[in-house]
From TrEMBL:
UniProt KW keywords: Glycosyltransferase, Membrane, Transferase, Transmembrane, Transmembrane helix
Top-level taxon in the UniProt lineage: Archaea
Protein name per the record: Glycosyl transferase, family 2
Taxon lineage: Archaea, Thermoproteota, Thermoprotei, Thermofilales, Thermofilaceae
Listed transmembrane segments: 258-277, 289-310, 317-337, 349-371
Species whose genome carries this gene: Thermofilum pendens (strain DSM 2475 / Hrk 5)
């Protein structure tokens, strides 16, 4: 075991050599959710498993609780090395033929979670695992729930239509050890899950979406934390796309039938934003109308022309409104069908808020991240170590 950044290792239970499944959980500082998750995974009845937990700068009370959990390989690091470093440290200390990666803010309800993941992985190299957002009672959790229904469906679509993927959601996914050995472990990246998925894609690994089991995923507790999370996602995605633009474009051209529907469902504000910019503000028509209106006050013969210009402007905005409403109803149908396909709730009454408020806000953050990375050349993220 490397002693570079490891303060201590606690290994309880049977020796881990030769175990088939490794469950890896990285964390910064830790929390009650981490403790709850580790206890749950350690208690799962599947015997042939090892649980590897890496915590940077652990809180004392969290470390003490984790030490009391049997059957866990616990790596406590005194300094913050970052998620990628923690994942790679855990991989070096694990031996499972299949590796399941879990974030520290998820929870596993299903007693047969590991068995079902293994069964679904037969014949596949990498898999995205279904995520279900916990409804904490507020509107934010429900909006994020709708969003994750889209993400789940996009993964299912890629699995069905292409059997390959360029992205997985790092909160819960699985990879065969053999596949990891082929492509290497995690590289320094803000979006380490996208990066490893793209390398798996380039290696022509088979991909599947696991939907017969799931993890519960907790949403940000408030919009401030949501904004912080999305800012990091935006910068990470922009940096990833900048580095892998050629591969991403090739993927789009090779399998548009899988990529485009999933992208439009995950980011429906792309369609409404495009409509808004294509049907621009028509400054010339407005200027001409004001001129003809002024002229009409002096020359009566100009009134019909001013009226025609006003009608033209109204028709333009009606067309724009009609196009956006059409996009919304297409989204409504598509999102409802997607939710049914992945067996998740619909929250139909929140679709207008999601489409017209939540999604434009997320798209704006995303585009701002692209400008920050590609134009301003700033890739650092506050309170995040790569």
């Amino acid at each position: 075991m490397s002693s570079r950044a490891i303060a201590e290792v606690v290994l309880e239970g049977k020796a881990s050599q030769g175990r088939k499944v490794s469950v890896i959980i990285p964390s910064y500082r830790g929390s009650e959710r981490l403790v709850r998750l580790v206890k749950r995974v350690a208690s799962l009845p599947y015997e042939d498993k090892e649980v590897v937990v890496v915590v940077d700068e652990p809180l004392r009370e969290v470390a003490e609780e984790l030490r009391r959990i049997g059957g866990v390989k616990l790596i406590l690091r005194p300094k913050r090395g970052g998620k990628v470093s923690a994942l790679n440290e855990a991989l070096r200390e694990s031996s499972g033929e299949v590796v399941i990666f879990l974030d520290d803010d998820v929870y596993v309800e299903d007693d047969r979670f590991i068995e079902k993941v293994l069964k679904a992985m037969e014949g596949y190299d990498i898999a995205d695992i279904k995520k279900v957002i916990v409804d904490t009672g507020g509107i934010l959790s429900k909006l994020v729930y709708i969003e994750y229904a889209s993400y789940n469906f996009a993964s299912k679509l890629m699995a069905r239509a292409a059997r390959r993927t360029v992205a997985v959601n790092g909160a819960a996914f699985a990879v065969r050890r053999k596949a990891l050995d082929e492509i290497g472990y995690f590289r320094p990246s803000i979006s380490e899950d996208f990066d490893i998925a793209l390398r798996s894609f380039k290696a022509k690994h088979n991909f599947t979406y696991i939907e017969n089991t799931y993890v519960l995923n907790y949403p940000p507790s408030d919009f401030r934390k949501w904004f912080k999370q999305r800012k990091r996602w935006a910068i990470g995605l922009a940096a990833w796309l900048e580095e892998n633009f050629a591969d991403a474009l090739k993927t789009l051209l090779r399998m548009p039938h899988a990529v485009i529907p999933g992208l439009l469902l995950a980011l429906p504000s792309l369609s409404s934003a495009l409509i808004t910019f294509v049907l621009s503000n028509h400054v010339y028509e407005k200027t001409a109308y004001l001129f003809m209106l002024t002229l009409s006050s002096l020359v009566a013969q100009a009134l019909p022309f001013a009226s025609i210009l006003l009608l033209n402007i109204q028709l333009i905005y009606l067309v724009k409104a009609g196009a956006i409403l059409t996009a919304f109803f297409v989204f409504l149908f598509w999102q409802f069908a997607a939710s049914r396909a992945v067996k998740m709730k619909s929250y139909l009454y929140l679709y207008p808020v999601y489409f017209f408020v939540y999604q434009p806000l997320w798209l704006t953050i995303l585009l701002a991240g692209f400008i920050r990375v590609i134009v301003l050349r700033r890739k650092s993220v506050e309170d995040w170590v790569v």
